[in-house]
Each structure stands twice: as C-alpha cells, then as structure tokens.
Amino acid sequence: MTKLKGFAGKILHIDLNNLTHHVLPTQDYYEWGGGHGFGAKLFWDLSEDIEVVTDGRDPRNVITIAGSPFSGTNVPSAGGRCEVTNMSVGLIPRNRFTRSNFGGHFSSMMKHAGWDAVTVTGKAPYPVYIDVRNDHVMIRDASHLWGKDTHETQQIIQEDVASVEVASGWNGQLDGNSFGRTTQKASVLTIGPAGENQSALGCLIHGAGNAAGQGGNGAVFGSKNLKAISFIGTGAVDIADPEALIKARFKTRDFYAADIDKSAEFAFPSLGGKPEAITFSTMPTGHRVSSCHGCVNGCKQRNAIGYGNEVTCQTSVWYLGAVRSYKFGGNAKLSLAKTGVELTEDSLYAGDLANKLGINTYPIMGLIPWLQKMHAKGELGSGKEIHSELPYERLGTREFADQFCQAIATGTDIGAYFINGIVPGIQQLGHSADVDNGTLHYPYYGMPEHGYDPRAELEWGYATLMTDRDMNDHGLNWIYWTVNLAKLEGIDFPIPAEVLASRFVEKMAPYVQADEVSAMDYASHNMYSEVLARQVQWINHYGRFWKNSALMCDFRWPDCVNTHREDLRGATGNDEVGEHVWWNAVTGEGISYVDGIERGRRIFNLDNAIWALQGRHRDDAKFADYIYDHKMTHNKLPTYLWPATNGAGQWDYREMMGRQHSREGVEEWKSHYYRAEGWDTATGWPTRSLLEGMNMKDVADRLEQAGKLGNEEV
C-alpha cells in the first residue's frame, strides 16, 4: 500500500514479560485507520488466547493506546483524542474486548515523538513506567511512584524529563540519534491507587482530568505492574495537503463554528457549540475554558479556586446529588433542575479527588443514593448487616467524599465489596433485587446508565446492546440536551421536530435514505421498527471509524445540525468541510464519507468476531429486568422530550417518560439489526460470506475452528 501522510510510521510494542520493546510498522495497519481499528487488529494479532482469557487482569491481555492521522494536527476537534482498547474488567455476564477514549494532548505528543500507538503485553516483575523520548524507549523502575496519585505521578515524571536544560525555557531531548528541543512538558498517562489495587473502578488519567475508565483500563495497567506511559517529542506531523487543510479549517470557522465575539440565543452544540465548560452547574467566578489539542470548542476549565481543573461532564456532578441532599434534604439522586454555585465547589472538589485517585466516577455515582438508602434503613454502618465505618451521616460533605473515595481506591471498608465492579458487589451483598427492580440504574452489562434511559433514548440503549459497553456516543444525544434544557429555561426551541429529524436522517448514508424520516421517530409505535435498526447500524459504523479510529471528538462530530447555517445542515458528509475532507487533506488518500463508514463496518465486524470467540451470544444482549418490568419515572431533567409522531403522523417534541420496553419488542428489534448487519439471527455471530466479503477470511477460519461462525441465511 502507498505510504500515507499523517502517520508517524511506527507502533511501539512493549513486552513487559521480558522488559523489552520492538517496532511494528504502521503501514501494516493502514487499512484499520488508527485508534480503535489499530487496537482491534493488534488485539487480534497479539492475543493468542482470545477464547480463554476471561478477565482483563490476566497478564495475557493486550492493551493498546492509539492515536490517528489527525493526532497532533489542527483538524477541528480531532487533534487530541486517544483510544484505549483491552479485555475488560468487571462487566457481566462476562468480560469482553472493549474500548475507552480520552482527550488532552497525549496522542499529539506521542505523534510528535514519532509513534502512532503503543501496545503493551505481559506483566512486569515489579512496578515500571514507560519513558519515551522521541526514538529513545526506556522501561524504568516505578517503585518510587507506586502509591502516588495521578497528579503527583505526572509531575514527578515531567520534572525528570525536563531535567536536561538547554537554555532558558527549553528542554533538551536526546533520542540516541540527535538532540531535539521543546518547550513542552511530557504527556503522561497514569493510574492512581484504584488502578494499582486492580479495581474494576480504576481508570487512566492524563493531565488534570482526561480519563479513560469504562472497562477497567486502570485495573489492566495495575495488573501489569504498569504505573504510567510518558511521551515527549520534538518532531512534526507530515501533512499531505496543508493548503487544503487550512482552507477547510477557515471555511469551518466562517460557516459552521461559533463566533465567540457574537452572542447567539441558541446554538446546536455539536461543531457549532460555544466554547464553555461542560459542568452542568453554576461555575465559580474566576475560571477559563481549556481544550484538547486542536479543538475549536473547549469544554473543560481551569479554576481560580485551585482545584477541579478539567473536572468536566459527569465527573463534575457525580457527587452533586449528595451535596444537595446534605445541604437541603431529600435523596442523593442527581437532578439538574437547580444547580447553584453553593453546590458547585464541593462537587468540583469531589471530582478532583476521584481524578487524583484514578476512579471512574460513572459507576460510583449510582451507588451513592443506594448507600444513603441502606444507611437510612439501618442496614449499613458499623456493626450492621453491611459493615462499614464510613460516616454516612456526613454523606454529601467533603469529609465523606475523602473517606469514600479512599475506600473505593484501596479496596477497603465499603470499597472491598466493589473491587470487581458495582453490580458484582451488589450481588455479593445479596441485594441483586435492587438491580432487577431499578433501585440501582445499571441497565446493561453491569454498567451504569449514562444518564440516558434506554426506555426513552432508544438509540443509546440499542447501540449499547449491540456493542461491548455503554456506547457513549452523543451524536444524536445533543437533541436531549438542547430540547429539554430549552424547556427547563422557558425558551421556545427554534427548530421544528420534523425538520430536526430530517437533518439527522440526511447524514445517515448509506443505511438510511434521506426521505426515511421515521428513522428519528421515537414514538412508542415505532420503537421496534426495522428503520431504527438501520439508524443504529449507522451510529455504530460511523462511530467505529470516524470517532473511534479517526478520533474525531464525540462531543463535536457528527455535525448533523448546525444553527449557524440558514438551512441547518451540519458539516458531516459535506464535500468542503466533512470528515473525509480532513482525512484526505492529512493522509493524501481519496476516500469518501461513506468509504469511512464502510471501514467502520469492517472494524465493527472484527470486534464482533472477537466477542464471539470470547463467548458472546444473542442471549447476552438484553436489558436489566426493570427496563421491561417498570415504567420510566425519573430523569435528571424534569422532561425527556424527543422528536416523535402521534397516531396521526404529526411531528412534535413528545414526552418519553412513563413508558417501558417489552421483551418481545426488543427481541424483534434485535432480529432486524442482525439481518441488517448480515449476522446469524439465532446467535448474533458473523457469517463466512460476510467476513470474506470484507477480506477477513482468516477471521472466518478462526471462528469456524472455534465453532463460533454464524450460519448463513437460507
């Protein structure tokens, strides 16, 4: 294959069993794009025991941290993302190959050092960290770092890397061949105590708060005795057509991006969103927006109060319900109906604490109200049925947050029950009924609800069932935020429901035709339709390439609706500023928007082959019982409005709360989806004709040998 621009050309393979490293040529992996595609293919190539490894803490697990051709470039909201792939920890009914993703500057610095990805196998005999300075790779003793939090660890490594001073403000980097200079700090990805103790709740942290945690990535590092990976480089990214890149960036700025010098009453928050911290609460005075490398819409913040830096999105509110409960009464469930500054500083403190300890805050947020309830019932506390010495009467204070997070990170006190995940811990305590009845909102695979109930937001639930984890794809989800926040604030939402639905559907090629607006109809009479299966197919395939492999930011892409355009049509798929325009400008290829989605289909089917080898079956793809047995009654916002039709076919933003799924309906939808993918409808496994049609005969052969190849449709 012709050498492509944008890639550094090398993948770093670290063998911790032997404390050695070697180089894999990126050119062998071009067809997988980068990011997740690289991770899936490397997992396939390097995992000799896919069928028998059942826990991500097994030394045979392969973990890959990968960038893309966009890493280190100024492609809008795509230059700083990084994908993590590995065998999971803490999922049910079984662990599986999974993914996570984080932002910041790690992938760009890895690229500047001359590397496209780093993949790690084996287990070190003692704690180590990986120190990469351009071409110079060192596996170093990390005994002095073990036990330190994520912020301390990064600072110590950065100070060591910067110890060669060339002149004022410059750091020298000797890579074995030449002497480079940079004013930048090393980019470090590390674990805290939660990962060191191999907790399923452990995550990876880069910078103050860029985290990858869903799937137990921190536990994987800890199980390998790997404390951190550090990159610093003095190189550059070779761009195929810099003029085309800059031209597209200017056009994006002029016609699609927010103008910070102008105020707009309303902006759809994908590519056209305003740069502002996503904290869901009133920020303290004295903060400024920060962003990942190359982003045009910074969503994080730096605070004058000295803590809570880069505490954003869910991490900023995991403790908010508890803070409100302690100060004003009521239960500790999250609600965003009222978020005053008197609540924010304590919430940011708790978010900062979790980031330092390397804790994934999504699972623990749902646990907090349950602990409050069990303590109120007299079943949790010192000498109680569930013994714990934590001060539950202080739940909602900084004191409790300190002790609770320490327990979770170290696997002590209440944290001992949850070292393998929240749902396994609840089951161990004999309270499985609280998962089944919805007291605890963990609707799929033992993972917490992301905040978007699958009874209401259909694509979120369905796409999760068809993949490995909570899908965490906000492409359609911005509808929830814009429509329902407008309702909460008394603003008339400016886009008619049918128009909004049409703009999304226009981008769903090749699976949904532009006139099939019913693909966005979330009415109860359309919940299990075939067209909704094709909508989710587009989400999964678009996401696997353009988001997870090319690494375009989930918050900004796809840009289906853009309120800076009179016609409301976003940049996605556009031949002047669409995803493929950036890819071609950087790499020199000539692919189309749909070509990228087809690559996503191939990557997604390799994923499914891996899952099949690991034991996945159609029967695994189901929601927790409460999703079928109980109506949805709670949401973090007062409403859950979504585009939908009534019985007469009239469009409006209609309420989704108050409904439930049926088991028969979900099974019907799954059959639609499996047929759309070309999978065996009885098992969910890929077929030989499907895999060979995508040039994956070797994958089909291995599945057949394992007895996991799907039957062809007659």
TrEMBL record:
Mind listing the GO molecular function terms for this protein?
Answer: 4 iron, 4 sulfur cluster binding; electron transfer activity; metal ion binding; oxidoreductase activity, acting on the aldehyde or oxo group of donors, iron-sulfur protein as acceptor
Q: Is Oxidoreductase given among the entry's keywords?
A: yes
Could you say which protein family the record assigns here? Belongs to the AOR/FOR family.
Arranged from A to Z, the UniProt key words for this protein are:
4Fe-4S, Iron, Iron-sulfur, Metal-binding, Oxidoreductase
Q: Which cofactor does it need?
A: [4Fe-4S] cluster; tungstopterin
InterPro entries in the cross-refs: Ald_Fedxn_OxRdtase_dom2, Ald_Fedxn_OxRdtase_dom3, Ald_Fedxn_OxRdtase_N, Ald_Fedxn_OxRdtase_N_sf, OxRdtase_Ald_Fedxn_C, Tungsten_al_ferr_oxy-like_C, W-dependent_AOR
- The protein here is known as Aldehyde ferredoxin oxidoreductase
Q: Which residues form the Aldehyde ferredoxin oxidoreductase N-terminal domain?
A: 7-235
Matching entries from SUPFAM superfamilies are given as:
Aldehyde ferredoxin oxidoreductase, C-terminal domains, Aldehyde ferredoxin oxidoreductase, N-terminal domain
